[in-house]
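Suppose a colleague, Dr. K., hands you the sequence of a protein chain of 482 amino acids and asks what its three-dimensional shape might be. Before reaching for any lab equipment, you can write down a predicted structure in token form. Begin with the sequence itself:
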Amino acid sequence: MASIQTWCQSPSIGGMLATNMDNPTRAMPFVFGDYMGLRMLPGLKGSAVATKFMPQYPGTSRTAGCSCVLQPRAAVNKTRLHDLYEQEKQSPWYDNLRRPVTILEPLIKSGVRGVTSNPTIFEKAIAGSDAYDDQFRQLIREGKSVEDAYWALVVQDIQDACDLFQALYDESEGGDGYISVEVSPLLANETERTIESANYLHKTVNRPNVLIKIPATAECIPSIKQVIASSISVNVTLIFSLQRYEAVIDAYLDGLEEVKGDLSKISSVASFFVSRVDSFIDKKLEAIGTEEALDLCGKAAVAQAALAFKLYQEKFSGPQWEALEQRGARKQRVLWASTSVKNPSYSDTLYVNPLIGPDTVTTMPDAALNAFIDHGKVARTIDADLKSAQDTYDKIEKLGIHWSDVGSLLELEGVVSFKRSFNNLIKSLTVKADALAQSNQTSSSCLCLQRQIKVRYGALNSAILLELARMVYQPTRISFTH
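The predicted structure, expressed as tokens, is then:
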């Protein structure tokens, strides 16, 4: 925009052009002066300026000497992710987050429309990189506790990612561009503390496109309702069964009912986990060992997901939903999570290709994302054969593998896994903090000894003083990475 202002002899006109071209995604009229009514159309960009058809300066015969020639914006190289959204209305999100957050920029260009994170992702990011060390050192020196420092690191990443996706959030009018951050996994069985944590994260991140992740445990179902009632957008995570999914939807609808006024600023997704279901049930089927059981391997997760989509369509219809929709309510989209393939004999797009449907989200880690971009198939598949999905679901139940038990056990496993990641990272950061404290204490002792030597022996070369101090204290060299 500065180049436009430089070419323009009129700073005020240049400023108006710059202001309107900063947001080229929709028609922007000039709303005052001699240019009232001139509009910059979507898909256009300023490319040149010329002295042509411009008004005169008041009281002079000089023209303003500036006009903007508009040309079509350069075409974006489309990927299957763009096709997925444009053709089938499924939003592809990225299931990973680490520093530098700017690595998300090429993913946005490739068609990624949001980001999910969890405690395990942050454990890998923070413990496996030195990108967080400088900020961590500063936080500890400021007197922050290790856990407070952890949350400061997380919040910084979430804020930076939200800012990167802000334009997409605005362009989609709040449909996409969301970044998810999870409450402490240590609170998975505590209703009130989960509510407090969700409110804290929402206030601290302070971005309109943040989703607060809350686990779908029995204790947190009331938390979901209350947080939604507080007009906070939520990503409900760790859903493994149809029964719990229905409870999550009901909590969302009940929460919306308690909100007064416009509902359009509240968004939510329900993260239904997929591949972990097959990993668990396949082991049970292999243990049974019959031909019928073995034939069902690798089919359970997709079958249950298809039935979840059917439930989604049923719940977001009818009088209750229609009344909420008239107040601006958005559907709580189902989000397919855990889309990476655990069994190497399965197709690497097994948990993406068969789960494509409108008004849904699929969040993919690197392997699944790259596989779909390379050879995924874009077509509506999620409800292509609901009868077969129901048959598969029923056969598994008849074999003695009870879906309610599967959901409960996987939920417990997920909670334990996230708690383990969180605790491991806090332990790792505590070691770093202790090492940093020891380093600071040693440095302080070295300085004190240097002063004592100087007083006793007079002026010595500073390098000699430092070496003498080091010989006494022999400080340990500290690494802040694993």
